[in-house]
Design brief:
The protein has 498 residues and is mainly beta. The chain contains two helices and 36 strands.
Length: 498
């Protein structure tokens, strides 16, 4: 009997087993799946946080955009669900791995890899039922978290102005009238603004009667220093500035857009807003001397400003002349005339029945100073006069001032109805004041500020004041017995108010 050596015995007994074990390890490792990243802190990365379909639709319109979804982790990830928030009712479609769908489950992305998603929208821009802005969100469910990417397109045949300047410290904007350029906006198509539309220095923008301008969230119109704005509405065709949400729930909702911002101008180049409605924003008009004291004026005639989160008119050391102006329902002030300036208003209705929260400010506030970096007042001359007008609202005091010494400042209220706790007996400041008598507007809940039959404001105006505004906001003659406010009472007037 041949006895194997110890070395040979090892080879016979152990080598085949080792080879079998090694082969098994190789087989198991080749079959084992890559581990998934299940951390609740994991976040997908996207090529964009929103997809804006900026195609201007002139007929049945469709557009497709690509979105990249990145997995920057060192492990494979599984997206449990990718779906459109509005589901099958969405105007958008998505395509993942060649499949057109509203949602797709259990989508995997390897470590350091990415996923292509194609989003498509199809809209008939001539469908009157469409909103101007069509929106949805693409939702991603990963490890118990939800991430989203906005989808935004426009649903009507309109002119779209999209911000193309994104500079730190400035709102996104697009220059619509550059220096030495005269631009006209007509009523042929509605104008939808996404960002700020800017009138540059020495440029001018003329807006024709009947033009409708719709602002997206946080958007506005900015007339830069020495730019010029001319809004030329008519009684029958006012120019309308409002948010771009047209659903019924948004008809009177404030805060949908930002503001009309007007900076200082050169002498003889007045900004004019005539026969216009400005509604549902944050600030209706902000007029300010920014780099230097303005040399021009802002002229307001037949203007309605309402439903502003902040102020109807906010000024800083400016010159404003207004007649037949209604400023109503503002969360801060109807008029906040600050930092001095020169202001002359006649036949105005300043009515603040803000319904959304407690309002601690008066409807009208005047100050004659600006504050320096240490919050110390810097006096500026202030001159304000108001004639044949109404200041009224829910608060006990709807007229307030905050004046400091060091600057020539004065105000004069002549033939006005005012809600206030002030005595108003000093004839240097007040003349023919009706205090704390309800003006009896037709319907404040419907924002109808015409005078009802028993209003104490009827016939209480001064003809010498109304001579500069012989017709009211609706075109009715005031005659020899003018009423207070922007509207002249008309016997038998309809209860319906547009």
């Amino acid at each position: 009997m041949k006895i194997l050596s110890r070395n040979k015995l090892f080879k016979v007994l152990f080598l085949p087993g080792f080879l079998f074990f090694a082969a098994g390890l190789f087989f198991l490792s080749s079959c084992q799946k890559e581990a998934f990243n299940t951390s609740p802190d994991f976040k997908l990365a996207f090529s964009n946080d929103s997809i804006i379909f900026d195609t201007v639709f002139t007929s049945l319109g469709s557009a497709t955009h690509r979105l990249m979804v990145y997995n920057h982790s060192h492990s494979k990830i599984r997206i449990s669900d990718i779906r459109l928030e509005k589901g099958s009712s969405s105007d958008f479609r998505i395509n993942i791995d060649g499949e057109a769908t509203f949602n797709k489950k259990d989508v995997e992305i390897r470590a350091g890899d990415s996923l292509f998603i194609f989003a498509r929208v199809t809209i008939d821009p001539n469908n009157a039922a469409n909103p101007f802005v069509v929106q949805d969100r693409l939702l991603f469910f990963v490890n118990g978290n939800v991430q989203s990417v906005k989808l935004v397109a426009w649903g009507k045949n309109a002119r779209y102005i999209l911000a193309d300047h994104h500079i730190k410290g400035f709102p996104p904007y697009k220059i619509v009238a550059d220096s030495l350029e005269n631009v006209e906006w007509t009523d042929k198509k509605p104008i939808v603004i996404y960002g700020y539309a800017v009138v540059n220095s020495y440029g001018s923008l003329h807006i024709d009667a009947g033009t409708k301008i719709y602002f997206h969230k946080n958007s506005g119109l900015w007339v830069y220093a020495d730019g010029k704005l001319n809004v030329s509405g008519t009684l029958g065709q006012p120019v309308v500035f409002q948010g771009d949400r047209l659903d019924a729930n948004y008809a009177g909702l404030p805060g949908q857009w930002d503001r009309i911002w007007i900076m200082e101008g050169k002498a003889g180049s007045d900004d004019v807003i005539k026969n216009a409605v400005i509604k549902n924003g944050f600030i209706g008009i902000q007029a300010e001397s920014f780099f230097k004291k303005t040399e021009n004026k802002l002229l307001l005639k037949n203007v309605v400003i309402k439903n502003m989160n902040g102020a109807g008119i906010l000024s800083r050391d400016y010159t404003i002349i207004g007649q037949n102006v209604v400023v109503a329902n503002c969360g801060g002030y109807c008029l906040a005339l600050t930092g001095g300036g020169n202001y002359h208003f006649i036949q105005c209705t300043l009515a603040d029945y803000w319904p959304y929260s407690i309002r601690n400010n008066p409807a009208v506030m005047l100050t004659n100073f600006l504050s320096d970096t240490n919050n110390r007042p810097i006096p500026h001359p202030m001159h304000f006069d108001l004639g044949n007008s109404i200041i009224y609202g829910y608060n006990d005091d709807e007229f307030g001032t905050n004046m400091v010494a060091g600057a020539d400042s004065s105000y004069f209220l002549d033939h006005c109805l005012i809600k206030t706790r002030l005595k108003m007996e000093n004839t240097a400041y007040f003349n023919h004041i009706i205090k704390n008598k309800d003006p009896k507007f037709m319907d404040v809940n419907k924002q109808d500020y015409r005078l009802d039959t028993l209003s104490p404001a009827i016939g209480q105006g001064s003809p010498s004041i109304s001579a500069a505004a012989p017709y009211d906001l609706l075109g009715h003659p005031r005659g020899k017995a003018p009423d207070l406010g922007a509207y002249q009472f008309v016997p038998g007037q309809s209860k319906k108010f547009k």
